[in-house]
Structure formats: structure tokens, C-alpha cells
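job 3f2a | input accepted
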Amino acid sequence: MSSLRALLEEGLRPGVYRWPAAPGADAVRRDAMDEGFGFVLLDTGEIHDKTGFLDLCATAFDLPRWFGRNWDALADSLSDRSTGAPEVVLWTGLRHLLDHDHDTVDVALQIFAEDTTNSGQLRVLIAETETPDLLSSLPVL
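job 3f2a | predicted structure (141 res):
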């Protein structure tokens, strides 16, 4: 059993976490789905700015066509799509985006943290081996 399956079985609470030892996306997807969780991959390894990030979120989270591509719209859309079904979000390539647009990462983390508090749906796992200052306060899996 992978560490993710064990964490999910033990009742991993909604939140934003650093996961330095994250396996590949396929393994995370399989384990999440085996435990009855949805799965979303956010790979920002080629994303440089807010526009690219919001476009990625629109696709990855399957947001409606009317999604406004701004921070308020992202927060509202994530809240609107809350079905109560838990989801694992694997965020890879965060360091790349952080190096290009620190503010985008900062605001995105705030929105995800707010959504995990409000909906109780998301478990956002950041696959990052380094710990930039922005992530230092996040719990580690």
C-alpha cells in the first residue's frame, strides 16, 4: 500500500500539504481513485503567469465555459463545483511557476486553502522537494 492510500484511509483532512516524496501522477491518480477520491493534476511546469495558471485550472478542474479567468471566478467556480465528493489535487511544477510569478502561486495557495476550509473537498498535495519560504508553513506528508 502506498503512503497516499494509507493517509487517505486514515482520514487525511482537507488542506494544502507539501509532499516531497510524491510518486508519479499515475500512481497518485490510481491510489486516490481506489480510495473513492476524485483526482486533479495541476502541472505548472510550463506555466509562467496568472493567465496560464487560470487556463490550466479551467481545464484541470473542468470548470464551466463561463469561467471568468480571474481569482474571484476561480474561488467561486471551485466552490460551485463542490459536490461533497473528496478530491486529491496533485500540484507538480510549482517551483517553475514560483520562479516566474510568485504572486500567482501565493494567491492560488490562498484560494485552495480557503476552499479546503469551506468545502472540505480538496486535499492539495504539492510535489516539491525544495521548500521555498512561501511553502514553509505548510504541513508535510
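job 3f2a | The mean pLDDT is 91.
job 3f2a | closed
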